[in-house]
Amino acid sequence: MPKRATKTGSERTPLAGTHDVLICGASFAGLAVARELAGSGADVLIVDRYEIGERQTSACGIPTEWLEKLDLMGAERQRFDTLVINTPHGSSRYKLPWTFSTFDYRTLCGLMWDQCDARFETAKVEGLASAATNGTDAIAVETDRGIVSAPLVVDALGWRRVLAGPAGYQPPDAPLSRGLEVHPDGGAEDLEIWIDRRYVPAGYGWSFPAGEETRIGVGSFDPKFHVRKTTELLAEDLHRDRVRYQGNWIPHKLRAATGRGVFFTGDSAGHCLPLTAEGIRTALYFGMDLGRELRAVVEGRQTREQAAANYARFSDSHEWKFKWMLRTQKIVPRVPPRVLGPLIRLFGTKRFVDWSFRHYLDIAPPEFAETPPEPAKRGIPTTV
Ligand SMILES: Cc1cc2nc3c(=O)[nH]c(=O)nc-3n(C[C@H](O)[C@H](O)[C@H](O)COP(=O)(O)OP(=O)(O)OC[C@H]3O[C@@H](n4cnc5c(N)ncnc54)[C@H](O)[C@@H]3O)c2cc1C
């Protein structure tokens, strides 16, 4: 079990005060926002209920190039240039046009934090506070350590979207998938997935080796299907220990990127891709875009309202891609199992794999991490 480092007892002194930017959530999306604000001179506070990197939220697989572009290669644990897809009627090995890496969560968060110049506090965020903010345009956020406020508030708190208010979105009725994995010791060679109804009627199983451990899990697009038994079954089939469980809900639908004066990013805005449930790269991508918009506000180049409009437009401009992925997510489980194997082999031609994986990578391309795209290229008016 990871060692808990979160402040307890007398260390939990009251929090109060107004900052330029308040980022709630210090995982991929929150740290990506903070990283873009580094050097701007803004007073940025990040809060999370756990210490940075303390609680792994995923199997931690990402296109390698994203790690390279963000200078995070120190967190890489293993790299893959093929993907093995297993079905009940045969397996196929795809040669990927780009490599995929697994990484260590704690190391990656630590490296991202080193690239920030924000302040960090552990606190549980409970919602927007109704408290007055002395006539300023600051938004007050209630935490278990007191009320903190800022004119620019980011919800990077994951699928719960805590700052969106009580009209929440609760599983199992909300458009959320569910995922659970075990992390047995011992490595493996291949990055593998299983499309097999023995494990899940709609979804897939995976084995993501990461150096000295392997992350084996099952994700179900149907939130009503419980994945614990079949995660254990997959681990058993692979002769691996069922230890160190971690799981969560995974959004598979985009949600409004702004609202109540708050900016939502990562899973809280539904930025996780349907079908593949890949949400780290997109949390970094949308988080960076948001960070760039907020930087323009703190540097006096645009207003908060302009940042909100630009960021919402940017997020919405991806909606059609998310919808396509969701359509495919709905179709795959309807394909009869005996047809799936031959179909996967048919689509395994180099040309098709290269084409589809390149388009998939382009949804959140690694180049985005290098240079902010020109406003015009993003469909945003150049005048502010
Ligand atoms: C089992 C599983 C495996 C996955 N594997 C992959 C994978 O290999 N690759 C991939 O790309 N995606 C994967 N995903 C999806 C991915 O984990 C998410 O899309 C991604 O973590 C989203 O990042 P985020 O920063 O938006 O949110 P999160 O990573 O969920 O971070 C939210 C942060 O907010 C904090 N927080 C939450 N509530 C509060 C509160 N009330 N107060 C204070 N702090 C709070 C949490 O502690 C956390 O630090 C997986 C998901 C699951 C469930």
Amino-to-carboxy terminus distance: 49 Å
Run of helices and strands:
EEHEEHEEHEEEEEEEEEHEEEHHHHH
Average pLDDT value?
Answer: 91
The count of strands amounts to 18
So, the CATH homologous superfamily of the largest domain?
FAD/NAD(P)-binding domain
Based on CA inertia axes, which overall geometry fits? globular
Q: Report the portion of residues in β strands.
A: 25-35%
* Fraction of residues in H or I helices: 25-40%
Give the strand order of the largest sheet, numbering strands 1, 2, ... along the chain.
4-6-5-13-14-15-12-16
Secondary structure category: alpha/beta
The total tally of domains equals: 2
Uncertain segments:
376-384
Summarize the structure.
The chain is α/β, with parallel strands linked by helices and about 375 residues long.
